[in-house]
Hints:
Elements: E1 2-5, E2 8-14, H1 19-31, E3 36-43, E4 46-54, E5 71-72, H2 76-81, H3 83-90, H4 117-121, H5 136-139, H6 142-151, H7 168-181, H8 185-197, E6 201-202, E7 217-218, H9 222-231, H10 234-241, H11 246-250, H12 263-267, E8 276-277, H13 279-290, H14 303-309, E9 314-317, E10 324-327, E11 332-333, E12 346-349, E13 355-359, E14 364-370, E15 372-373, H15 381-401
Parallel strand pairs: 7-15
Antiparallel strand pairs: 1-2, 2-4, 3-4, 3-14, 5-8, 6-8, 9-10, 11-12, 12-13, 13-14
Helix pairs in contact: 1-15, 3-14, 6-7
Amino acid sequence: MSGAVGQVDVQGTVAPGWEPVRDAFLRNFEQRGDRGAAVAVHHDGVKVVDLWAGTKNADGAEEPWTENTAQVIRSATKGVAAAVPLLLHQRGLLDLDAPVATYWPEFKAAGKDRVTVRRLLAHQAGVPVLDRPLTLAEATDLETSTAAMAAQAPAWEPGTAHGYHAHTFSWLLAGLVHRVTGRTIGRWVAEEMAAPLALDLWIGLPERERHRVGRLAPVEAPEEAGALRLRAKRSVTEAYADPDSLTRRAFAVIDPAPDENAPEYQAAELPGSAGVATARALSRFYAATLAPLPDGAPRLFAPATLALARTEESAGTDRVLLVGTRFGLGHMLHGPACPLLGPTSFGHPGRGGSLAFADPESGTAFAYVTNGMRKTVTADPRAQALVRAVRTSLDAYRARAR
């Protein structure tokens, strides 16, 4: 189905009862400044929403977003990557309560000897910053980046607080997975998750797929921009302006800031920030964490692993984001800073727009990707409008089932 309103032509499919999601998706273009985006929803393993619209590139080019357009998903990559240690634990290869140094001996340096795998995944390791930022070449080299991570002293005593490891999560997870499996995390995701589930999803984009990826660019919804600035908390604004704050330093550990549209960045295996995916693939990935899929694709998480994924490990004021955040074992959990569907939801937003998660209670998986980057970190207005529409559709579904 498709529907054109003005310059917006929404393409794709919506199952009966899920039309509110399509309506919200259209309004994102009409009222919230979206230029190119896609949204997908699975319910009880069945794909019930698969929509796309706008242009492939957010910087003015008119090439349309198509069914196969993929996008850099920024920190929504973390939600995919967090499944790797959970699956290694499920297979008996990783003890969540063992010191990281059990698998990565160099990591025990500078007071990190008692950091457990659990604390590392829950953003409690205390290393969201580096004393010396890395160049892009250093950041994308596994040996160099993980050596810098191992040598770094914590900014707080590990385990006593949590703070979002915005970029260093990439090297923490990449170093751990490589030492446990002998494979890079991008290769592990490709072989153990993307291939079995037939996902258009990459941590380390192959050159042959580059033509599918849309260009990111900043966007603003004119009627909301001023209000957003007024609502910004003074403490957060000041922290971003302060070059010595943990907030500013955590987002500046690669210097100069990389061009996310560059081939070398998208090819990098940075599991905290540089994943590329379609909304359809992200939603299907999260659907597979909940149950086997109707087409025979395997279930990723055993019941005990699913329980781990939705369990809170960190909560309260975030040392980096300066708001109340909740984390499980690498996934962000439902809360005021990152509203998902409900208390059992787990997933991850991407700074500027993208969002993907699973909700075990309702059997729902959701993904939204966009090429228009807004000044948001964890709760983009476009993604939240779509989540509210999913909730409306679920409420109507439950009412019909009574």
